[in-house]
Description:
The protein starts with a helix and ends in a 31-residue tail after the last helix. The protein is an alpha/beta fold. Helix 1 crosses helix 6 and helix 3 packs across helix 8. It is built from eight helices and five strands, in the order H-H-E-H-E-H-E-H-E-H-E-H-H.
Amino acid sequence: MLKLKLINMRKQIHILSVFIICSSILIGCTSNKNDDLNYKISINESLGAILKDSSRVSPEKMADIIYNNNTQFRLIDIRNPNDYIKGHVPGAINIPGHDILNPQYKKYLNQDDVINILYCHSAMKATEAWFLLFQLGYKNNLYFHGGYHYIKENILDAYKVNSSMGYDEKEKYDYNAIMKSLGAKSSGTSSSISAPALNAPITKKKKAVQGGC
């Protein structure tokens, strides 16, 4: 049992090391453009955040947020603009991951008004972006434990919400079972955003907003 815990701890430390290296490279490459990019969180705090895993959004929570139109949260698609235009979660805005440190996006990524949920092609990419923002001290950011294709195929398509096909990913969750357990119903309406990055989300007429999960 102790051996297993040590192995898991080593894996988590390895992942943290990779995140730190990646974020250091990215910050180093952009530091000349923006002198405000400095680490605000210590290594110990960062490790604690990874181990605590409180910033991860589960499939159940994501499904509940989408179908209850919970305005406490804002979805941020960090894929490239071309993939975003092909299809995205209704209401999500696009902030490309490669440009996430651009000063024009700071007002969206470091604020007190809503809680952002980052998603990408995979959970790893979303986690890397979240970790970078966390290291910089940006507030109110979470990441989805999955990828766009998971949401598209198992939540949006299953309940007839418009969105184009994303990249192939191996299915990890039974979203049909998740939605049944939540008692969610399809609204029969569709909504999609074809505008450029940072277009304001479309407000949909749905049932009353419920609280966070």
